[in-house]
């Protein structure tokens, strides 16, 4: 791996958070070339840290002991610059800060990444910028600072409004916390707040699931994501079920939970545009659509995945990339090489078609025989 140039990192000490710097810089530094098709990509930013590990989660996440956030921030900025130059992408179509718990990060970290994007590619004002938030780490003041840093869409991991279920999942928030965060988020991000809910939990019934859903839908915003619980090896919940300490619902019951949820959401004005995702008033997730439609996306941060053509290396075929998982090792690699890519796999035409087929069939619009492959 070769270094692709040095990068200015860090933020001015007195940088205000009253207006996203990215919105100022985009039009001035990188206006779109007239009458020229732009090479585009979505960008995913992985924040790998959490306050605790939930009982069901096997994502790439870590409980920090002595977190050096300025170092992490500089590495995210540097890797973003390197991979944007490598991809020769001219416009970023969406940005998603996921994790981990990115609402634990400083708003300055979010602002630094967005500022870097506006310096090295075109990031139009109003481009969808989503932040995942945990109700336990996202009060109104915190959310307002993220909004000032450039976030314009929020995804809240509510998961359940049943305190017993939240405890089972190992969540560090209560139903009361979740409802308060949702109300605050709707005020700051009206029309652009999404919630995540999980079904198929041990001991959960169809009646309790539907009751919780009916409780939250009247007060939620315009986007809902439903996820069936998956037991992942290595998690506490997997161990408890495997040892017979917790009973999982019958698969037919879980299937009926899903069908009931679809009907309840439909009756509340939501349109199912993907297997797990529902929106009303046109509030579809631009970022997630880029995955399902087979578009290019760049992943930065420990363990992030990406799919793009490394044109800066003279390549013409898309590669699947995985960044180094462990944050401290990843940071060392970014300082040494400009990025922390651990694995690169060139994708041939059949690989890409298989991905387009698999992801495209998740959407209500399906797929067509006319697809653009790169």
3D architecture notes:
The chain is of the alpha/beta class. Helices cover 37% and strands 18% of the residues. The protein is built from twelve helices and twelve strands. The strands form two sheets. A nine-stranded mixed sheet has the order 7-8-6-5-4-3-2-1-9, sandwiched between helices. The chain is globular and about 55 Å long. The two termini are 22 Å apart. 41% of the residues are buried.
Largest β sheet strand count, sense and barrel closure: 9 strands, mixed
Uncertain regions: pLDDT < 50 for 5+ in a row?
A: 1-19, 21-30, 32-36
> Which strand order spans the largest sheet, edge to edge or round the barrel?
7-8-6-5-4-3-2-1-9
Report the oligomer: single chain
How many distinct helices? Answer: 12
Q: DSSP strand (E) fraction?
A: 15-25%
* C-alpha-based Rg, rounded: 21 Å
The gross shape turns out to be globular
Q: What's the short version?
A:
The chain has 374 residues and is of the alpha/beta class. The chain is built from twelve helices and twelve strands.
Features of this protein?
single chain; 374 residues; alpha/beta; three-stranded antiparallel sheet; 12 strands; globular; disordered N terminus
